[in-house]
Write a structure and sequence with these properties.
five-stranded mixed sheet; about 45% helix; alpha/beta; YidZ_PBP2; LysR_subst-bd; Arc Repressor Mutant, subunit A; rod-shaped; about 300 residues; D-Maltodextrin-Binding Protein, domain 2
């Protein structure tokens, strides 16, 4: 017997006949016609090779096989019913759900501490997994449910992926607290005269600041390319290298390293961060709860200048 070939509705009919003791009563309970219930019973008999119910007087009496089946069938149907109810309801206080959030490391430091503080207060059993999402597969992962939501830059995704802008973030320059240029102001010439560290998951390629410099016919000297902003911030704190970095991350990193934040001496578009989720879960209570807390982290967040 192949369970994947079984029709769930057949077991609903089986349970109704068992409980009601007849096809007529079962059809009334299920709001089906008597021929439809009889047809379902016929399919069950073919599947199991057993009559399942035999008529005694005006009642349908279960066979020994039917009596063995009823317990597991009722347990399975009840489990499904509970699961469907739970899927349409979310109680933060009692939930032990795991939320998987796609987020880049530059946003982890901004998002995770306040998110987990809110989760611990409101939903002590809820767990969060922050993962690095491949932007090329972001839509498919959201659609499949392997990601509940994602926070990232603007991405050209289909209309099936919902989005909301969370915050605008300008770029600033990070230097160690006693760097020769730490007291500023810093001109573009001074910026270009420095040795730079770049943080990127890509092995090569320009940053947005390099694109603008190239447009101006200028170029900076990159002495170090690393994978994570946190590592770059530590390098800055211990060397004369300077780092161009989103301001919100620089503010957080300063708590650990005490680096100095200086304005970037050129005008660049601000970097917008967006919250993404799939239309399939747009009204799901659990996903709504998660998105509400993610949005609250950035409520009222502005960047001067």
């Amino acid at each position: 017997m192949h369970i994947e070939r079984m029709d769930l509705n057949l077991f609903v009919v089986f349970e109704a006949i068992y409980t009601e003791g007849g096809i007529t009563a079962a059809s009334g309970k299920l709001h089906l016609t008597q021929p439809a219930v009889s047809h379902a019973l016929g399919r069950l008999r073919d599947i199991f090779g057993d009559p399942l119910f035999e008529r005694e007087g005006r009642r349908m009496v279960p066979t020994p096989l039917a009596r063995n089946l009823i317990g597991p069938v009722r347990e399975a149907l009840r489990g499904l019913e509970i699961g469907l109810v739970e899927a349409d309801r979310f109680d933060p206080e009692s939930s032990d759900r795991l939320f998987t959030l796609g987020v880049r490391d530059v946003l982890e430091t901004t998002v995770l501490p306040p998110l987990m503080a809110q989760v611990r207060r409101e939903a002590p059993g809820v767990r969060v997994s922050a993962v690095r999402a491949d932007r090329r597969r972001l839509e498919s992962e959201l659609a499949a449910g392997s990601l509940d939501a994602a926070v990232d830059i603007w991405l050209p995704l289909s209309e099936r992926v919902c989005h909301k802008r969370l915050v605008s973030n300008r770029l600033v320059v990070l230097v160690r607290h006693n760097h020769p240029i730490a007291d500023g102001p810093m001109s573009l010439d001074t910026y270009l005269a420095q040795d730079h560290v770049v943080a990127s998951s890509r092995r090569a390629g320009p940053g947005i600041e390099d694109v603008e410099l190239s447009r101006l016919g200028l170029q900076r000297t990159i002495r170090l390319r690393c994978q994570h902003y946190f590592a770059a911030c530590r390098v800055v704190s211990e060397t004369d290298l300077v780092l161009t970095i989103p301001e919100r991350y620089a503010q957080v990193a300063n708590q650990a390293f005490g680096n100095r934040v200086l304005p970037l001496p050129m005008t660049l578009p601000q970097l917008d961060s967006y919250l993404y989720w799939h239309a399939n879960v747009d009204s799901e209570p659990a996903n709504l709860w998660l998105r509400r807390h993610l949005e609250s982290i950035f409520d009222g967040a502005t960047n001067p200048g």
